[in-house]
C-alpha cells in the first residue's frame, strides 16, 4: 500500500508530503504539454487555476500545514493495518509480502460478499451510502488516504468475522462512518467547485477523525485476535469508550463541515447574484436554441419520412441517426466513421390484415391486460417533457455529455448495427447523487424523435421520475416492467400499417390478478409472451434511464431479478430482437450480477469520459 506521508520522528519536525493526484482534466494536460507559457506556471487542482511557479510552493506549504494532522493519523492507521495483516497471516506464510493498495470498489465487493453469509443491517447501510462516501474520498488530496481508509474497512470486515461477540459492535462502528456523510451532496458539490481554506481545513479535521476511528477499530480487532482466549480485551471497556468518543468527535466534525459548506454556499450565491443577469440571458438563449434545434430535427425527420411513402423501420432509423449525429459519414465528437454497416431490415415483414390477426375471445385480452397493468400513457408524455425541458435548459457541459453519447459509435451500433438483440449499458460517470442526468436527456431525445413514426417500437422508462413509494406503490422493478409492457401493447395497437394482436391465451384470469398485485414474475411472463410472438426481424427498442434509483436495499433484489430476465431474453430471443439501453448517471455497482458478459457482441458497455 502506498504511504500517505513520510514521517520524521524528530520531535515536532513532522513534514507530511502531499503527492499530486493524477489529473483527469484534459484541458490542463493540453496547456501543460503544448502551451509555451506552461513552463512559467503550474496548475493547482485545489483552486482549479494556474499560478506562477514562484507562488506554487507557498500554496503547497499551506496545504501541507492544513493536512499535517490527518497525514500523521493516516500513517498510524497504515501501521495498524500492517500489524493486523501480520497477526492474521497463516503460519508458514511469507512475511515479506508487500501491503496492497486498496480501493473503495474492493471494499464494497468485500462487504457484498459478507452480505451473502451475514444478513447484517450495518452492511446494508454501508452499501446504500457507498456512492456518496466514494465521492467524499475523491476530495482528499491524494490517493493514499482513500487507500488507507478502504483498506481499514476491508480488513475490519474480514477480521471481525473471527471474533465472536464483538463483530456486531465493530460492524456498527464501521457503518457509522458513511452515516456521517449521508446527505452530503451539497457539501461535496461545493468542495468540487472550489473550497475555501476554512472548508478545506474542516475537511482535513473530518478526515483525521474518520481515520482515527478506523485505527481504533483495527487496533481493537488486533488486540482481540492476540488475546481472544483470555477475553480481557474483548470485554474492552477502555477501547469501547475510546471508540465511542472518536465516533462522537467524527459526527461533530461532519456537522462542522456541513455548516462551513453552508457558509461557502451563501458566499457563492452572493457572487452569483452579481452575475445573474448576464448568465440568465445566456442560459435562456441557449435553452431556446437547444429547443428550436430539437423541434427542427423532429420536423425535418417527419418531412423526410413523408417523402418516402411506406417508409420501413430501417429507413426511419437511418434518418434518425443522421438527425442525431448531424453528419451521415463522420462523427465529430469521436473522430471516426459511424458504424452503420449491416443495417437492420426492421419490421420488414408482409402487411398484416388487422381482421386476420388472431383473436383471443376467452381469458385475458389486450384490454383486460392493459387494465391489470394500470399504467397511464400520459405519465410517459409528462416524463419525456420534463427530461427534454431539463436538457434544453442545462449547462453546455450537461449538453456536451449527452451529445457525446448520441454521437458515439457504440450508440450507432446499438441502434442500427448487426442484427440481433443487444444490451447497451451506459455509465455516465457524472455526479451519482443526481438521478436526472445527461443520460436522461439522451433517452428522452431519442425516444421523442422515434415517436414521429409508428414503424419503430420504442419503450421508455425514467426510474428517477418514479421513486416515491408513498405516492406510487409500484415505484419498483415490477412497475417499470408494467409500464414497458403497457407501452408495447399500446404501440402494437396503434400502428397504422402493420397491426399485430398478440395471442394471450397462455395467460389466465388469475394472472391478471397477480399482475394487479404487483407480481414481477407474472408481469414478466406477459411481457415475454408478447415479445416472443412478434414477427421475424421486428426490433423493439427499450430505454431504461437511471436504474441506480432502483438499486437501494429495498428495491435491489427485484431490480436484479428483472435485469437477469432481460439479459437472458436478449441472449436467447429468436425471430424478433430486443435492444435494451440501460443508463446510470454515475456507475453501476451490480451489473456484474446480471449474468451477461460485456463482450461487445450481445452486450456493450459505454463509458462516458469524466471530461468531454
TrEMBL record:
Pfam families membership: NPHP3_N
Chain segments carrying region Disordered: 1-20
UniProt cross-references to InterPro entries, sorted A to Z: NPHP3-like_N (IPR056884)
Protein name, entry field: Nephrocystin 3-like N-terminal domain-containing protein
Keywords tagged on the record: Coiled coil, Repeat
Domain Nephrocystin 3-like N-terminal: 403-583
Segments forming a coiled coil: 240-298
Amino acid at each position: 500500500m502506498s504511504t500517505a506521508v513520510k514521517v520524521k520522528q524528530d520531535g515536532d519536525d513532522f513534514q507530511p508530503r502531499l503527492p499530486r493526484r493524477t489529473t483527469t482534466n484534459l484541458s490542463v494536460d493540453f496547456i501543460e504539454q503544448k502551451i509555451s507559457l506552461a513552463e512559467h506556471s503550474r496548475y493547482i487542482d485545489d483552486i482549479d487555476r494556474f499560478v506562477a511557479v514562484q507562488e506554487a510552493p507557498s500554496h503547497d506549504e499551506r496545504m501541507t500545514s492544513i493536512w499535517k494532522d490527518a497525514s500523521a493519523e493516516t500513517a498510524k492507521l497504515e501501521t495498524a493495518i500492517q500489524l493486523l495483516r501480520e497477526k492474521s497471516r497463516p503460519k508458514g506464510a511469507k512475511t515479506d509480502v508487500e501491503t496492497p493498495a486498496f480501493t473503495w470498489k474492493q471494499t464494497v465487493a468485500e462487504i457484498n460478499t459478507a452480505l451473502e453469509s451475514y444478513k447484517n443491517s450495518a452492511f446494508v447501510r454501508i452499501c446504500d451510502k457507498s456512492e456518496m462516501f466514494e465521492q467524499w474520498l475523491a476530495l482528499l488530496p491524494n490517493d493514499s488516504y482513500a487507500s488507507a481508509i478502504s483498506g481499514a474497512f476491508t480488513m475490519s470486515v474480514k477480521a471481525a468475522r473471527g471474533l465472536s461477540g464483538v463483530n456486531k459492535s465493530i460492524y456498527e462502528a464501521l457503518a457509522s462512518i458513511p452515516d456521517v456523510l449521508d446527505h452530503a451532496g451539497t457539501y461535496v458539490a461545493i468542495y468540487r467547485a472550489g473550497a475555501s481554506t476554512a472548508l478545506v481545513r474542516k475537511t482535513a479535521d473530518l478526515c483525521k477523525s474518520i481515520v482515527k476511528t478506523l485505527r481504533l477499530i483495527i487496533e481493537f480487532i488486533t488486540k482481540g485476535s492476540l488475546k481472544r482466549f483470555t477475553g480481557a480485551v474483548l470485554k474492552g471497556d477502555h477501547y469501547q469508550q475510546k471508540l465511542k468518543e472518536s465516533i462522537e468527535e467524527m459526527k461533530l466534525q461532519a456537522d462542522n463541515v456541513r455548516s462551513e459548506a453552508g457558509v461557502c454556499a451563501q458566499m457563492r450565491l452572493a457572487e452569483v447574484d452579481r452575475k445573474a443577469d448576464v448568465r440568465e440571458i445566456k442560459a435562456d438563449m441557449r435553452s431556446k436554441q437547444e429547443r428550436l434545434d430539437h423541434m427542427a430535427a423532429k420536423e425535418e425527420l417527419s418531412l423526410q419520412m413523408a417523402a418516402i411513402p411506406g417508409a420501413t423501420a430501417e429507413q426511419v432509423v437511418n434518418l434518425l441517426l443522421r438527425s442525431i449525429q448531424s453528419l451521415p459519414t463522420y462523427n465529430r465528437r469521436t473522430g471516426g466513421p459511424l458504424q452503420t454497416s449491416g443495417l437492420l431490415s426492421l419490421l420488414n415483414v408482409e402487411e398484416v390484415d388487422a381482421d386476420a390477426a388472431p383473436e383471443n375471445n376467452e381469458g385475458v385480452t389486450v384490454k383486460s391486460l392493459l387494465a391489470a397493468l394500470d399504467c397511464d400513457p400520459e405519465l410517459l408524455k409528462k416524463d419525456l417533457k420534463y427530461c427534454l425541458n431539463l436538457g434544453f435548459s442545462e449547462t453546455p457541459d450537461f449538453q456536451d455529455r449527452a451529445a457525446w453519447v448520441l454521437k458515439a459509435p457504440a450508440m450507432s451500433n446499438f441502434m442500427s448495427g448487426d442484427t440481433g438483440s443487444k444490451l447497451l449499458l451506459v455509465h455516465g460517470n457524472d455526479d451519482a447523487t443526481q438521478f436526472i442526468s445527461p443520460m436522461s436527456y439522451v433517452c428522452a431525445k431519442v425516444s421523442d424523435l422515434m415517436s414521429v413514426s409508428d414503424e419503430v417500437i420504442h419503450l421508455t422508462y425514467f426510474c428517477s421520475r418514479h421513486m416515491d413509494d408513498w405516492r406510487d406503490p409500484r415505484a419498483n422493478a415490477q412497475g417499470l416492467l408494467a409500464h414497458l409492457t403497457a407501452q408495447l401493447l399500446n404501440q402494437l395497437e396503434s400502428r397504422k400499417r402493420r397491426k399485430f394482436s398478440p395471442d394471450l391465451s397462455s395467460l389466465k384470469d388469475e394472472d391478471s390478478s397477480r399482475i394487479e398485485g404487483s407480481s414481477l414474475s407474472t408481469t414478466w411472463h406477459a411481457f415475454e409472451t408478447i415479445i416472443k410472438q412478434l414477427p421475424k426481424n421486428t426490433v423493439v427498442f427499450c430505454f431504461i434511464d437511471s436504474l441506480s434509483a432502483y438499486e437501494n436495499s429495498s428495491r435491489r433484489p427485484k431490480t436484479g431479478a428483472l435485469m437477469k430476465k432481460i439479459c437472458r431474453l436478449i441472449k436467447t430471443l429468436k425471430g424478433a430482437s430486443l435492444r435494451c439501453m440501460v443508463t446510470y448517471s454515475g456507475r453501476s455497482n451490480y451489473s456484474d450480477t446480471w449474468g451477461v458478459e460485456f463482450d461487445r457482441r450481445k452486450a456493450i458497455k459505454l463509458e462516458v469520459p469524466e471530461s468531454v
